[in-house]
Design a protein that fits this description.
With 167 residues, this protein is of the alpha/beta class. The chain has 4 helices and 8 strands, in the order ββαββααββαββ.
Length: 167
């Protein structure tokens, strides 16, 4: 693996648990297309690995799990009249569906800020952990964007909330 300071998703197996850490703390772990592709690839590998019994998703830094999609990248794509944002959303929606159907327990620690695409990653988890610091939202609804990354489709899995005991 490359230097953690340059890696936007840290993936490691710790005993029987696959740990995914969103690693862009200065951007409150805002999702890039590279991050979505990395998570999808790693989850596919771990789904087939009998040594991995569960997956835990967390965010680095103190501010939160994920502030949603990388708005700066989407802004630049829009100015350039590009197609990168549409490709990002297509892959993110696929990832959310894969998380919802993941064959092993998927634990999302929704500590701190969890917005937009961060809701998409975590609301579909089989186990969602919220804390006294959790602040969830779908700010894109304020501009008329329909929140199908998770804001309206997350109610089919059981909900479990508890405070984590690990750092």
């Amino acid at each position: 693996m490359s230097d953690p300071a340059e890696t936007s998703v840290l993936a490691a197996v710790d005993g029987r648990v696959g740990r995914l850490v969103l690693n862009r703390p200065r951007a409150i772990n805002a999702l890039t297309h590279e991050m979505v592709r990395t998570i999808r690839r790693v989850l596919g590998e771990w789904a087939a690995d009998p040594a991995v019994r569960a997956v835990v998703l967390t965010g680095s830094g103190e501010r939160g799990l994920c502030a949603g999609g990388d708005i700066v990248a989407m802004y630049h794509d829009g100015i350039a009249r590009g197609t990168a944002s549409a490709a990002f959303w297509a892959d993110e929606y696929r990832l959310n569906a894969e998380i919802a159907e993941y064959p092993k327990p998927f634990v999302a620690v929704m500590d701190g800020i969890v917005l937009g695409g961060g809701i998409g990653l975590s609301a579909h988890a089989s186990i969602r952990v919220v804390t006294e610091r959790s602040k969830l939202g779908m700010p894109e609804t304020g501009i008329g964007f329909f929140p199908d990354v998770g804001g309206t489709t997350c109610c089919h899995t059981p909900r479990v909330s508890w405070a984590p005991t690990w750092p």
